[in-house]
C-alpha cells in the first residue's frame, strides 16, 4: 500500500508533466525556463504589447505571434496577462512569448524592445465620443510612456489608445520631458481608417478590397478623419452622392461598430488586424525593406496623419498631402480646427 504522502508526490509528478512550466510569466515561481533547451535568441525583432489582455490586445497578440519577423513577444497588462500569455505561447510559431502582470513588471516588459504597441485603455460605449475617454486614458498612456522613456527609449511606439488625437501629444510631451523624444519613433495608429476606407470604397466600386488603397489623413476622430478619395488607387471617380456616403461612413466607422456592439465596447477584431498590419510595416521598415509606406499619425507638421515611409529609424520620410480637390480642402480646414484643440488638450495634460 502506498502512503498518502507517496500518492500525493506521484500526483504532483504526473501533474508537472501534464502542466509543463511553459508559461513564461515574469516572477513566477513555477517557472523553470532554465531546464528547457530553448534559449530564445532567434533572429528577429522584440515587440511588446501593453494592454495585451484586452479586446484588441488578445487578438493582436495572436496575430503578432504569427509574424515571422518577431523573435520575442512581451505581453503586458494589469489583469489577465498570465492567461493570455499561456494561451498565445502554445502557438507553434517562432516568437518566444513572455507575460508581465501589473505595474511592478512594466519595466521588465519594456526592456530591450524594438517596437511597443499600446492598446491599453477604456473603449467607448454608445453615446460617447473618443474625447470622453481622455480622463481615464490620458493617465494610462502617460504612465506607460514614462516606462518606455526609461526602458526602451529607442523603440518605435505605436499608440492605439483613444483619443489618439490627444494621446499622441501626451506621449510626445512625456518623451520630451524625459529627453528621449524622437519624432520618427512616435506614431499614432490610424491604420483602421485606411482598412475601412479600402473596404467601403471597394464595396462601392464592386472590386476586391485588396486592390484598393485609399490615403486617409488628418486625425482619428470624426471630421478629423479625412479620406482623400481623389487619390484612390487604382484611379477611379465617384459621384457626389458616393463621395458623401463614403466620407461619412469612413469618418463614422468607429461609431458604427460601437453602436452595433451596444455597450460591449468598440472595434477590436478589425483593429487588431489593422494594428498587426501596422506592426508588420514597422518591422519591415526596421529590417531595411524599401518602399514601406503607410498612413500614420506623426508628430511633425505638427501632429497629423499622413503617408509616411517607414525605415530603419522609424518614420523617415513624411509625404505631402498631394493635390486636394475643393471638397477635400474644405474637409481639411474642419479637421485642422478640431485637431488643434485635441493636440492642445493632450499637451497641456503633461505641461499643466
Ligand atoms: N486607434 C484606433 O483606431 C482604435 C483605438 N481603440 C482604442 O483602444 C483602446 C483599447 O480598446 P479595447 O481593447 O477594446 O479595450 P479593452 O477594455 O477590451 O482592453 C483594454 C485593456 O487595457 C488594459 N489596461 C488598462 N489600464 C492599463 C494599464 N495602466 N496598463 C496596461 N494595460 C491597461 C485593460 O486591463 C484591458 O485589458 C481604447 O482606448 C479604444 O478606444 C479602439 C479601436 C480602434
Ligand atoms: O470608435 C472607437 O471608439 C474606436 C475607434 O477608434 C475606431 O473604431 O475607430
UniProtKB/TrEMBL annotation:
Q: Where does NAD(+) bind?
A: 51-57, 77, 137, 160-162, 271
- Class of this enzyme: oxidoreductase
Main location group: other
- The answer to whether the entry has keyword Transport is no
Cite a single GO MF annotation. L-malate dehydrogenase (NAD+) activity
List each copy of the Lactate/malate dehydrogenase N-terminal domain by range: 46-188
For this protein, the parts annotated as crossing the membrane are: none
List of residues binding substrate: 124, 130, 162, 196
An example of a Pfam family matching this protein is: Ldh_1_C
Q: Which SUPFAM superfamilies match?
A: LDH C-terminal domain-like, NAD(P)-binding Rossmann-fold domains
> Which EC number(s) are documented for this chain?
1.1.1.37
> Could you tell me the keywords of this UniProt record?
Glyoxylate bypass, NAD, Oxidoreductase, Peroxisome, Tricarboxylic acid cycle
First and last residue of the signal peptide: none
User: Catalytic residues per the record?
Assistant: 220 (proton acceptor)
**Swiss-Prot/TrEMBL catalytic activity:** (S)-malate + NAD(+) = oxaloacetate + NADH + H(+)
Q: Where in the cell is it found?
A: Peroxisome
Which InterPro entries did the record assign? L-lactate/malate_DH (IPR001557), Lactate/malate_DH_C (IPR022383), Lactate/malate_DH_N (IPR001236), Lactate_DH/Glyco_Ohase_4_C (IPR015955), Malate_DH_AS (IPR001252), Malate_DH_type1 (IPR010097), NAD(P)-bd_dom_sf (IPR036291)
Instruction: Provide the Gene Ontology terms for cellular component.
Output: chloroplast; peroxisome
A Gene Ontology BP annotation from the UniProt entry: tricarboxylic acid cycle
Keyword Protein biosynthesis in annotation: no
Give the family this protein belongs to, as stated in its UniProt record.
Belongs to the LDH/MDH superfamily. MDH type 1 family.
Protein's recorded name? Malate dehydrogenase
Q: Which organism is it from?
A: Aquilegia coerulea (Rocky mountain columbine)
Highest classification ranks of the organism: Eukaryota, Viridiplantae, Streptophyta, Embryophyta, Tracheophyta
Amino acid at each position: 500500500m502506498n502512503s498518502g504522502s507517496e500518492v500525493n508526490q506521484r500526483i504532483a509528478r504526473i501533474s508537472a508533466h501534464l502542466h509543463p512550466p511553459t508559461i513564461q510569466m515574469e516572477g513566477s515561481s513555477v517557472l523553470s525556463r532554465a531546464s528547457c533547451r530553448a534559449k530564445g535568441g532567434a533572429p528577429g525583432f522584440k515587440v511588446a504589447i501593453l494592454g495585451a489582455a484586452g479586446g484588441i490586445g488578445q487578438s493582436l497578440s495572436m496575430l503578432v505571434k504569427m509574424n515571422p519577423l518577431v523573435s520575442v513577444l512581451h505581453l503586458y497588462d494589469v489583469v489577465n496577462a498570465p492567461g493570455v500569455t499561456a494561451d498565445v505561447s502554445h502557438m507553434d510559431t517562432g516568437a518566444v512569448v513572455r507575460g508581465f502582470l501589473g505595474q511592478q513588471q512594466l519595466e521588465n516588459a519594456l526592456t530591450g524592445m524594438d517596437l511597443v504597441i499600446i492598446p491599453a485603455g477604456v473603449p467607448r460605449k454608445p453615446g460617447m465620443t473618443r474625447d470622453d475617454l481622455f480622463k481615464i486614458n490620458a493617465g494610462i498612456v502617460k504612465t506607460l510612456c514614462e516606462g518606455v522613456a526609461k526602458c526602451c527609449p529607442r523603440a518605435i511606439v505605436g499608440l492605439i489608445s483613444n483619443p489618439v488625437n490627444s494621446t499622441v501629444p501626451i506621449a510626445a510631451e512625456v518623451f520630451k520631458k524625459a529627453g528621449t523624444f524622437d519624432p520618427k519613433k512616435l506614431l499614432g495608429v490610424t491604420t483602421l481608417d485606411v482598412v475601412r476606407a479600402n473596404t467601403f470604397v471597394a464595396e462601392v466600386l464592386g472590386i476586391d478590397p485588396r486592390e484598393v488603397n485609399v490615403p486617409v489623413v488628418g486625425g482619428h476622430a470624426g471630421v478629423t478623419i479625412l479620406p482623400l478619395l481623389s487619390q484612390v488607387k487604382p484611379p477611379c471617380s465617384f459621384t457626389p452622392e458616393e463621395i458623401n456616403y463614403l466620407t461619412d461612413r469612413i469618418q463614422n466607422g468607429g461609431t458604427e461598430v460601437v453602436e452595433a456592439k451596444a455597450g460591449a465596447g468598440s472595434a477590436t477584431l478589425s483593429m487588431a488586424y489593422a494594428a498587426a498590419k501596422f506592426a508588420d510595416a514597422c518591422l519591415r521598415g526596421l529590417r531595411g525593406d524599401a518602399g514601406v509606406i503607410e498612413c500614420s499619425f506623426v508628430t511633425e507638421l505638427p501632429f497629423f496623419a499622413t503617408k509616411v515611409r517607414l525605415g530603419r529609424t522609424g518614420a523617415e520620410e513624411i509625404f505631402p498631402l498631394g493635390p486636394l480637390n475643393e471638397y477635400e480642402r474644405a474637409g481639411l480646414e474642419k479637421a485642422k480646427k478640431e485637431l488643434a484643440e485635441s493636440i492642445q488638450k493632450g499637451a497641456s495634460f503633461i505641461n499643466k
